[in-house]
Amino acid sequence: MARAGSPPAQRLTRALRAARVFFALWPGDGVRDALHCEAQMLHRKCGGRVMRRENVHLTLVFVGDVAVGRLDELKSMAGTISGTPFELVLDQLGYWRHNRIVSASPLTVPSALRELVSSLEGRLKQTGFEFDQRPYAPHITLLRDARAPGVPAPLHLDWPVGDFVLVESAQGPRGAEYRVLARWKLGG
Ligand code: ATP
Ligand code: MG
């Protein structure tokens, strides 16, 4: 007997719903803790809002709204990228006046990171996904609405990067909440 409600209609509604997504590097517990600790120390000096520990990430490509029905296509596309594992040395604290963000970044951007970003952008173009195309400035946001740090504090954190992820960003009661949708190994 047919059940109340219409599964095909539900499937259509789900397919049309948009998800706000981005590709990112997602730190493991050790690097995540170290970055969060750094953010808490900086908070004492610069005020603002500390990035929540579970949200700490480095954006590779911001795709934005994608129909949920196209997420599988996006995942298959990302699955074709092989990339190379690399060491990311975070040795710079930065401050952007225009958005009052304090961030950690690498002084030297590894070529494997640049290549990963260009591969993703190239495949996104080929498959007809739109994405943010501003020049790539890899950074990990630590504080928002903050004052400038003044005298730069030293930073040196080694992050061995072996994979990348697709993340969904949704608005929760405490601001943006991120959920990892899929993960791909580099060089795998
Ligand atoms: P909120 O916007 O609620 O303050 P958020 O910025 O953390 O939270 P999103 O706007 O969903 O959450 O962004 C997710 C990630 O993508 C963040 O690292 C953000 O800096 C980056 N991002 C957002 N918009 C763009 C964009 N247009 N271009 C490049 N990166 C972006
Ligand atoms: Mg934002």
The mean pLDDT is 93
End-to-end CA span: 47 Å
What can be said about the biggest beta sheet?
4 strands, antiparallel
> What percentage of amino acids are in beta strands?
35-45%
Global structural class: alpha+beta
Spatial strand order of the main sheet: 3-1-9-10
- Show unreliable segments: none
Strand tally is 10
Bound molecules: adenosine-5'-triphosphate, magnesium ion
Over all CA atoms, what is the radius of gyration?
Answer: 18 Å
Q: Give me the strand/helix succession.
A: HEHEEHEEEHEEEE
* Continuous helix count: 4
Mass-distribution shape? globular
Helix content: 25-40%
3D architecture notes:
It is a single chain. The protein is of the alpha+beta class and 188 residues long. The strands form three sheets. It has a four-stranded antiparallel sheet with strand order 3-1-9-10. The chain has helices spanning 7-16, 29-46, 71-79, 111-126; strands spanning 18-25, 49-50, 58-67, 86-90, 92-96, 101-105, 140-144, 157-161, 163-172, 175-185. The chain starts with 6 loop residues before the first helix and ends with a strand. It is 28% helix and 35% strand. The structure holds adenosine-5'-triphosphate (ATP) and magnesium ion. Residues 20, 22, 59, 62, 132, 134, 141, 169, 175-176 line the site of adenosine-5'-triphosphate.
